[in-house]
Design a protein that fits this description.
Length: 295
């Protein structure tokens, strides 16, 4: 994960290592390399620029020029800033409802259905919940079948109404079914399309309004870099979602989405997907991710 970025940052810090005394030119060179590394990782230009400005201010404030180990101090400052950029604290999911309703949104292929299964499995095995999965994709029968297969793998019931073409009704009926049958979490998987379009947005906004979920999650493929960030912005403008799920981080060699998305939509990344299996889900810890990035 993010090997290139880690390598480039490491090289940037080398400028400060092994110097008896460093100068502000050394610091400026290091920051230039840090910025270049972020841009190569597909981090948005403004975010990268603001990031290095903040690091510079902190470095000057902490007298990096006179410290005995300027390289170490810079790494610490960059790590703290990266952690902050990715969200600071860990953000959990709101499970306060009876049942707690979680609405999944995102483009087709982002990993929404897979993640719905992973989350159901996580809540069942790690949190002792009784989840119900709901298939609300009325366009692709294959999507309903996919969720049924996923549900079968993890032993979680899947609610669907293959003949019903009204996703609002399906979601509402599913919640009634959950209440009547003792399910305490309802995970609603919705229809995505290949690109943001008005019909999809209206449909999910209607479902959102009708079922008033405790948690609306936006699922996005980390490998799509700045596109992921733009798509997040479009969904957030419409849904004001609660959190981001970054999938396919196992295949993401660059890291731009992970680093940028929080500061663009001002919503935390809550979980990451790291593979196709149902167990490949992790809570997102900004500081651990920063550690990984810095190698
Ligand atoms: P949806 O259209 O948004 O519901 O997307 P799917 O859940 O069908 O996922 C699309 C493809 O991405 C499938 O082949 C999944 O197996 C794959 N996928 C989903 N999440 C991950 C992940 O975290 N890592 C990897 N490598 N593949 C994933």
């Amino acid at each position: 994960m993010f090997d290139n970025l880690s390598d480039k940052l490491d090289k940037a810090f080398h400028i400060l290592k092994g110097h008896g005394k460093i100068t502000d030119v050394n610091v400026a060179d290091t920051l230039k390399e840090v910025r270049r590394a972020l841009l190569d990782a597909d981090v948005n230009f403004k975010i990268a620029k603001d990031f290095t400005t903040r690091v510079k201010e902190k470095a000057l404030g902490e007298n990096v020029l006179t410290t005995l180990q300027p390289g170490q101090l810079m790494i610490k400052i960059v790590k703290d800033e990266l952690t902050e950029l990715m969200g600071g604290d860990v953000a959990g999911v709101n499970l306060s409802g009876t049942p707690s309703v979680i609405l999944m949104s995102g483009l087709q292929g982002s990993g929404k259905t897979t993640f719905s299964g992973k989350l159901a499995n996580y809540l069942k095995t790690k949190k002792g919940k009784k989840p119900l999965l709901v298939a609300c994709d009325i366009y692709r029968p294959a999507a309903i079948n996919q969720l049924i297969v996923v549900g079968g793998q993890i032993g979680v019931e899947v609610y669907s109404e293959p003949e019903n073409k009204n996703p609002v009704e399906i979601a509402q009926n599913a919640i009634k079914h959950a209440k009547a049958n003792g399910f305490n979490v309802v995970i609603v998987d919705t229809a995505g399309r290949l690109a943001v379009d008005e019909q999809m947005m209206k449909e999910i906004a209607d479902v959102h309004k009708a079922i008033q979920p405790q948690e609306t999650l936006f699922v996005v493929d980390a490998m799509t870099g700045q596109d992921a960030v733009n798509t997040a912005k479009a969904f957030n403008d419409r849904l004001n979602f609660d959190g981001v799920i970054l999938t396919k981080l196992d295949g993401d060699t660059r890291g731009g989405a992970a680093i940028s998305i929080k500061s663009v939509v001002n919503k935390p990344i809550k979980f990451i997907g790291t593979g196709e299996k149902m167990e490949a889900i992790d809570v997102f810890y900004p500081s651990r991710m920063a550690d990984r990035i810095l190698g």
